[in-house]
Design goal:
By secondary structure, the chain is of the alpha/beta class. It is built from twelve helices and twelve strands. Strand 9 and strand 10 form a beta hairpin. Helix 8 runs parallel beside helix 9.
């Protein structure tokens, strides 16, 4: 093997072992030594003013070489040829390599879910169910475009499935303080918990409620026992039960029911069910008056409302609607500009 090649490999390996502090020290030493050598060689035009010297050093070390500044003395030319250029190239290459390494490492940490998420008021999804989770994220991205950011936190050994659209955190447990802090659990606006195992969902919901008491928690359960138990500990949690059996029974008696429910839940196809809060400063009204106004002005159909955590569907026309009631309606798109007066 060529000796010069071995020397270069040894020098490169030594440079790669330098810490960030050592690199900064090497840069400063290079700049000071170069200035002293050029000054002693009589290259006053290159060393004064100091701004011109820094400009010349950067242009030379980066191999740009505009040619507007160059040594004029014989000693200066030797110094530039034997010290300024070789050392500058080495240090410049190391700096660029380190910067590229830091950038790649930062990107990889985000892809692998090892980076802290600097976000608040976001929707935090806990759990991974492959295509079902991807479909959930797709619907949320459609609904929450330019609104609340989405963070996916998983226990599975995967990479960020949508790196350009969502943030991503991996954890060994949904009760891990450090990992959940990286996911911003205490600053989340809504937490959706969907796991194949109900016990993990239950533990995650209790943990999130303890870290963020006011957050809106949605927990999917296959069994209703843990859902009822969670409601006793976290009254604000909204438990989503599995309705597959009920859907089959309903479709058997009333054919087409499954298609109807699917369309009501699908934000990308046909009419969809939405909710809107009746303003706290609005006047008392009735279901009939509100139904006619929403249908006439927005082509939206009022189907019910919620008050005191109780949902009333298909209420009578003379039913009173009070301020702060949550109204449920069906429309082609979410109505963003209801006029209540």
């Amino acid at each position: 093997m060529n000796k010069w090649y071995m020397v270069r490999r040894w020098i490169t390996s030594q440079f790669q072992r330098l810490s960030g502090k050592h690199v900064i020290t090497a840069v400063l030493a290079y700049a000071v030594i170069s200035w002293l050598l050029l000054r002693l060689a009589g290259e006053h035009a290159l060393t004064s003013p100091f701004v011109d010297y820094i400009y010349y050093l950067l242009v030379t070390a980066s191999t740009v070489g505009y040619g507007d500044m160059s040594p004029t003395t014989t000693a200066g030319k030797w110094i530039v040829a034997l010290f300024v250029i070789p050392c500058g190239l080495s240090i410049f290459a190391i700096g660029v390599g380190r910067l590229a390494g830091i950038t790649i490492d930062y990107w990889r940490k985000g892809l692998l879910g090892r980076r802290s998420i600097d976000v608040s008021g976001h929707i935090l999804i806990l759990g991974w169910n492959e295509n079902r989770t991807l479909h959930l994220i797709d619907m949320l991205l459609h609904e929450e475009k330019d609104k609340r950011p989405i963070v996916l936190c998983v226990r599975a050994d995967i990479e960020n499935p949508l790196p350009k659209e969502i943030d991503f955190v991996r954890t060994a447990s949904f009760t891990d303080e450090t990992a959940m802090s990286r996911a911003g659990v205490s600053d989340a606006d809504c937490i959706i918990i969907d796991n194949p195992e109900d016990d993990i969902t239950f533990a995650a919901a209790l943990f999130c409620a303890s870290k963020n008491p006011d957050v809106h928690i949605l927990a999917y359960f296959q069994e209703e026992v843990l859902a009822s138990l969670l409601k006793t500990h976290c009254p604000n949690a909204e438990c989503i039960p599995s309705v597959s059996v009920e859907m089959m029974a309903k479709s058997a008696v009333d054919p087409g029911s499954s298609e109807l429910h699917h369309e009501l839940l699908n934000t990308r196809k046909g009419m969809t069910q939405y909710a809107v809060a009746y303003p706290g400063d609005a006047q008392y009204t009735t279901v009939e008056a509100l139904f006619m106004r929403m249908k006439k002005d927005y082509d939206a159909t009022l189907i019910g409302f919620r008050r005191d955590n109780h949902v009333r569907l298909n209420p009578p026309l003379d039913q009173e609607i009070k301020p702060n009631d949550l109204l449920f309606y069906i429309a082609d798109e979410r109505v963003l500009d209801f006029k209540w007066d």
